[in-house]
Amino acid sequence: MSVENMIDSLKERAKGLKAKIIFPEGSEDRILNAIKSIKKDNIITPILIGNEFEIRAKLDFEVEIIDPKKSEKLEEYNKIYSELKISKQITDPLVFSAIAVRNGDADGMVAGVTYSSRDVIIISKKIIGLKKSVASSFFIMDIPGFLGGENGCLIYADAAVIPNPNAEQLAEIAITTAESVIKLLDWKPRIAMLSFSTKGSANALEVQKVVEATRLAKNKGFEVDGEMQLDSALIMSVAKKK
Description:
Elements: H1 3-17, E1 20-23, H2 29-41, E2 45-49, H3 52-56, E3 64-66, H4 74-81, H5 93-102, E4 108-109, H6 117-127, E5 138-142, E6 153-157, H7 167-185, E7 190-194, H8 205-218, E8 223-228, H9 230-234, H10 236-241
Parallel strand pairs: 1-2, 1-4, 2-3, 7-8
Antiparallel strand pairs: 5-6
């Protein structure tokens, strides 16, 4: 399955969920261009956050727009906000949107156009919370001509959130990524714990961390192997040689 087909499949699944997704950066052109496509394909129900006059001036279709400063939910949300230690104001679009998700008024939030990844992660952790103890990310690599992975596609994690995870965090990243792959893509995860060493070819603290993470991840019921270099993970002949 190509990435294009994968995206089409996810779109079809999203249509069935009829989810309300809130966008804190509702006046940004990239968000509005995405919303036009979303509305055309009826993928989700978008909620845009920002100045209503400014946003409507850029649109030629109807969509729900909420100005946090004028929202009828402000008093209700303030009860949640007052329990949290947050430096940003409740009317900050990111804070307001995260509270909307926590309160069940939205099913999810998409942000990061003008807000930094750091802000999005911190606010989401404090207000919405984590299913597990570690927040992480993953991305999909579609490699033309590659016969391995899932029809030429691979998942890499984590390349954006935790720069130097310890063994326990690394194991949890592997497992939560595998769980996400099952839920989102319906793949059977086969996890390679990558290192600059393959099965003891080098000895360093960084290698031992991956060895321990591999041991921890193997106890969670998934196919896991490591520590290994990338070529060993992807090419069987190299793996056998090493």
